[in-house]
Amino acid sequence: MSKYDIFTDGSNCNGRVGYGAVIYYGDQIQREFSSMLNDEATVFLAEAQGIKNAIMETLDLQGEINIYTDSRTILQPLNVPWSQCIIIHEIKKWIKNKANYRLYWDC
């Protein structure tokens, strides 16, 4: 079975908030993407947007898809049945019934 590893990150640097992700197949980079968010966005939102976009970028892939984040604050609401955050609901919707997606905390 194919295995993809995705590393995501969100950050705030000098007042600018953004996210990025790298998708690996084995040790080869398959895709990279990043984007800036508006200046009022939080790092939480950037981390979540990185995960959401990683999922959207890989919906066409077959095989095991492992997403690694350094943000426990994102993983916690993804593992409870209820959250007030819209993007958390969107992430859950995308991976619902997709057994090949796994999210990991990678500190």
Provide a count of the helices: 3
Q: Which homologous superfamily in CATH is the superfamily? A: Ribonuclease H-like superfamily/Ribonuclease H
**Tell me about the biggest sheet?**
5 strands, mixed
**CATH classification, class level:** Alpha Beta
CATH arch. level architecture: 2-Layer Sandwich
The coarse silhouette is globular
CATH topology call: Nucleotidyltransferase, domain 5
C-alpha end-to-end distance:
27 Å
What is the helix/strand order? EEEHEHHE
Structural class: alpha/beta
| Structural domains: how many | 1
Tell me the strand percentage band. Answer: 35-45%
Low-confidence stretches: none
Helix content: 25-40%
Mean of pLDDT: 93
Radius of gyration: 13 Å
Number of strands: 5
Major sheet strand order: 3-2-1-4-5
Q: What this model shows, in words?
A:
InterPro entries: RNaseH-like_sf, RNaseH_domain, RNaseH_sf. Residues 1-107 form the RNase H type-1 domain. GO terms for molecular function: nucleic acid binding; RNA-DNA hybrid ribonuclease activity. The protein is α/β, with parallel strands linked by helices. The chain has a single domain (3-105), classed as 2-Layer Sandwich (Nucleotidyltransferase, domain 5). It contains three helices and five strands. It has a five-stranded mixed β-sheet, with helices on one face. Helix 1 runs parallel beside helix 3 (86-95). The protein is globular, with a radius of gyration of 13 Å.
